[in-house]
Specification:
It contains 17 helices and no strands. The protein is mainly α. The chain has one domain: MetI-like fold (Orthogonal Bundle), CATH 1.10.3720.
Length: about 300
């Protein structure tokens, strides 16, 4: 055992310049990821700023029981799952299809132009994006309202006041914004496909569509599986900013999700223990989903994160 340790430290000394590069990332992980984990115990205490974390009384699972017993539990969990599942089923295949179509495009300039135009919306800030959605779908001053008035002579119902429209606006605006950016990793995977496979298929008389289905698609499926596993690990963690900005008192029954509820009870109501308990519950569910999807994917396709 001792010679092995000496050999390890000798290897570290030989590559000391490379290990020095690890100091900052390790420091970041320890300071901002691991040390704050001590604050998880707030979920099991009746936290008081004056008494601090260690001085606050221990209440066990009382905060969790409170959350499970309130009517908001079913609402926020249901809305979170609906939005996340909708985003996955509608948005996950589109970057893959888009990458396959980009890969078969002819004309290098045209292909690069399409890529640039489609991934540029990813850099639009959430606030600007929501402002664009509100301006576009405004029932009075937006394109939607103007077109409806031109065709019918009346102004339409406010879409942001329709409960049934919230999930569609949220999901499809997100797909438009991130489709090109999400396709980059699949385009990179397609660049590694062996061209000899295409040449052999062409000799056998396979069309471009058949080559795309039987060669390109199977080659990127392992990458797609990894991305799906990572996406499943954040099913319960929908971005707070966009939902909160699109939220109003009318669509609240469909737009109140875990992250917005945690913000309201934690920062607005200053109930830190309760909000920490909700956040911890959310993280545990995400971890369980990640492990489950990873195990299923590993069994079905022998591809997994670990």
């Amino acid at each position: 055992m001792l010679p092995r340790i000496k050999k390890y430290f000798h290897r570290m000394y030989l590559h000391r310049q490379l290990y020095l590069f690890l100091i900052l990332p390790l420091a970041y992980l320890i300071i901002f990821k691991y040390i704050p984990m001590a604050g998880i115990q707030i979920a099991f205490r009746k936290f008081s700023i004056r008494k601090g974390i260690w001085g606050s009384p221990w209440v066990g699972f009382a905060n969790f029981s409170r959350f499970f017993g309130t009517y908001m539990f079913a609402r926020v969990v249901k809305n979170t799952i609906i939005l996340s599942a909708y985003s996955i089923f509608a948005g996950f295949p589109i970057p893959i299809i888009f990458a396959l179509l980009i890969n078969v495009m002819r004309g290098r300039v045209f292909k690069k132009t399409v890529q640039m135009v489609t991934y540029a919306p990813h850099f639009i800030s959430t606030t600007v994006l929501v402002g664009m959605i509100m301006s576009l779908f405004s029932s009075r001053a937006g394109m939607y309202g103007a077109l409806h008035f031109a065709l019918t002579g009346t102004y339409p119902q406010d879409i942001f006041g329709m409960v049934s429209a919230f999930s569609h606006l949220y999901v499809w605006s997100g797909i438009w914004q991130n489709m090109g950016w999400s396709a980059i990793i699949y385009i990179a995977a397609l660049s590694g496909v062996d061209m000899q496979l295409h040449e052999a298929a062409q000799i056998d008389g396979a069309s471009r569509f058949k080559r795309m289905v039987h060669i390109d698609l199977p080659c990127i499926l392992p990458t797609a599986a990894i991305m799906l596993i990572m996406r499943a690990g954040s099913v319960m963690s929908i971005g707070f900013e966009k939902v909160y900005l699109m939220q109003n008192s009318v669509n609240l029954s469909a737009s109140e999700i875990i992250s917005t509820y945690v913000y309201k009870v934690g920062l607005q109501d200053s109930d830190f223990s309760y909000s920490t308990a909700i956040g911890l519950f959310n993280s545990v569910i995400n971890l369980a989903l990640l492990l489950a999807v990873n195990a299923i994917t590993k069994r079905l396709s022998n591809t997994s994160l670990f």
